[in-house]
């Protein structure tokens, strides 16, 4: 279990003043769970991941729990163009493990993401989906207990994205790693998350549990209810002003 206790974190603005991003955030992340952090652009999702990854330390409050084995996947694959797929995937292990163990782990991670046959290719020969698979393999080779993913499928087309989502579920089920997956796509959150946390104004505005089995159906009572709650949270129905006056219901010139 990982937890944020009353975490406050923000940034100084170049023109002076301050932007408070996380405001007394309380959050619990259960071990082995698939969490989705959902929120609008700029609400602090990446900030939250950076704190979890230890790239930044919270200014106030505390973060508790074991974060000793972390894998991170960003929105772009960030591969090194001069290295092969296998070298890219094994890059972070190269100085920590001996060659044969690195090779074994890379082969197993590439098989897990469906790239066993692409080990010797260079990044310029890969499609966007394949490149992102390499990035996932690179995160998996260190056998993370916590996998942090920041909009990893944001740049993929709808078909590849669905395929990658299904693969990620399979990887999660096989490895048992705790996942924290950031997105601003409601349908992606519903397809993936067992816990969906909506981040708003620097706090968790909604904590939704979704028990539906994978691969998730597109409809059904539980899915529809989650969709309804999330859409109404982000897109509240416009308020139509009540008609006024004796001729209510008629269209009239408002300057009358
Ligand atoms: N290093 C930084 N210095 C100054 N401001 C920052 C820094 N990092 C983030 N911010 C600001 O903090 C706010 C939250 O940023 P963050 O990147 O966490 O948002 P996000 O929810 O990940 O957005 P997106 O969905 O667009 O990626 C934004 O207003 C951003 O401009
Ligand atoms: Mg972000």
Keywords:
6-stranded mixed sheet; 2 domains; Rossmann fold; 9 strands; single chain; binds adenosine-5'-triphosphate; 24% strand; 7 helices
Q: What report would you give on this structure?
A:
With 256 residues, this protein is α/β, with parallel strands linked by helices. The chain has two domains: 2-69 and 144-234, Rossmann fold (3-Layer(aba) Sandwich), CATH 3.40.50.300; 80-143, no CATH class. It contains seven helices and nine strands. The site of adenosine-5'-triphosphate has 12 residues, from strand 2 and helix 1.
Write the layout of secondary structure elements.
Elements: E1 2-12, E2 18-29, E3 34-38, H1 45-53, E4 60-64, E5 70-73, H2 85-90, H3 99-112, H4 128-140, E6 146-150, H5 158-175, E7 178-183, H6 186-192, E8 195-200, E9 203-209, H7 221-234
Parallel strand pairs: 3-7, 3-8, 5-6, 6-7
Antiparallel strand pairs: 1-2, 1-4, 8-9
Helix pairs in contact: 3-4
Bound molecules: adenosine-5'-triphosphate and magnesium ion.
Magnesium ion (MG) binds at residues 45-46, 150.
Count of extended strands: 9
CATH architecture of the largest domain: 3-Layer(aba) Sandwich
CATH topology name of the largest domain: Rossmann fold
Order of helices and strands: EEEHEEHHHEHEHEEH
Distance between the termini: 64 Å
Poorly predicted segments: none
Query: What is the 3D form?
Result: globular
Number of helices: 7
CATH superfamily of the largest domain: P-loop containing nucleotide triphosphate hydrolases
Q: What summary fits the major beta sheet?
A: 6 strands, mixed
Quaternary organisation of the protein chains? single chain
Class of the largest domain, according to the CATH hierarchy?
Alpha Beta
Structural class: alpha/beta
Radius of gyration, taken over Cα atoms and rounded to an integer in Å: 22 Å
Our count of domains comes out at 2
- Let me know the average pLDDT: 91
Ligands in the structure?
adenosine-5'-triphosphate, magnesium ion
Strand content: 15-25%
What share of residues is helical?
Answer: 25-40%
């Amino acid at each position: 279990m990982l937890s944020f206790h009353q975490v406050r974190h923000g940034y100084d603005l170049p023109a002076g003043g301050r932007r408070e991003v996380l405001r007394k955030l309380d959050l619990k992340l259960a071990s082995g769970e698939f969490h989705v952090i959902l929120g609008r652009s700029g609400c602090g999702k990446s900030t939250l991941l950076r704190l979890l990854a230890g790239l930044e330390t919270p200014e106030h409050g505390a973060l508790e729990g074991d974060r000793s084995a972390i894998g991170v996947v960003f929105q772009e694959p960030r591969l090194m163009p001069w290295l092969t797929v296998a070298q890219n995937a094994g890059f972070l292990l190269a100085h920590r493990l001996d060659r044969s163990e690195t090779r074994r782990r890379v082969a197993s991670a590439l098989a897990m993401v469906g790239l066993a046959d692409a080990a010797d290719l260079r990044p310029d020969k890969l499609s966007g989906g394949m490149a992102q698979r390499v990035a996932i393999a690179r995160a998996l080779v260190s056998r993370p207990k916590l996998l942090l993913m920041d909009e990893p499928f944001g740049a993929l087309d709808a078909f590849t994205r669905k395929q990658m989502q299904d693969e990620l579920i399979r990887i999660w089920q096989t490895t048992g790693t705790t996942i924290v997956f950031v997105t601003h796509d409601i349908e992606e959150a519903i397809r993936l998350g067992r816990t969906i946390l909506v981040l708003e104004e620097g706090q968790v505005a909604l904590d939704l549990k979704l028990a539906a089995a994978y691969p998730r159906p597109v409809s059904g009572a539980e899915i529809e209810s989650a969709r309804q709650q999330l859409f109404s949270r982000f897109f509240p129905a416009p308020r139509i002003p009540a008609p006024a006056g004796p001729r209510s219901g008629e269209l009239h010139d408002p300057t009358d």
